[in-house]
Write a structure and sequence with these properties.
Length: about 150
Amino acid sequence: MGCLAVDKRLADFEDICREKGLKITHQRLEIYRELLSATDHPSVEAVFQRVRQRIPTISIDTVYRTLAMLEQSGMIHRIQTMEGLARYESECGLHHHLICNKCHEVVDFTWELFDSLEPPPAVKSWGVSQGKNIVITGVCQQCLEREQK
Ligand SMILES: [Zn+2]
Ligand SMILES: [Zn+2]
């Protein structure tokens, strides 16, 4: 979905760290790299578990702070789920999310018709919209099949 190459994104990340006066550490780079390759919208905990395989000394606090910094810089995107548990993905083009209420899997989908719709007047009188994302919750096919057994 219009994703930039990983190398290019890692170079952008280094630029942003420099701008913000943050040290470019191996840990920060590995956290971002993990998110760039993830397709399952991992939670902080999940990112931590994965990066820890390669960097056993990493702390969950570092993962929290790095993800928060990346989100503020607009390099990653946070998806608010029903359980209030934040899930993250690298910013990768306009898309929406399907969230299963049973297994909590987050899946991407695109909806061009929705993207092209003008927001209703209430939105214009409210202010300036900077993004519109749809989250559809329900029960995924796998969970439905599991229930039938
Ligand atoms: Zn499910
Ligand atoms: Zn997504």
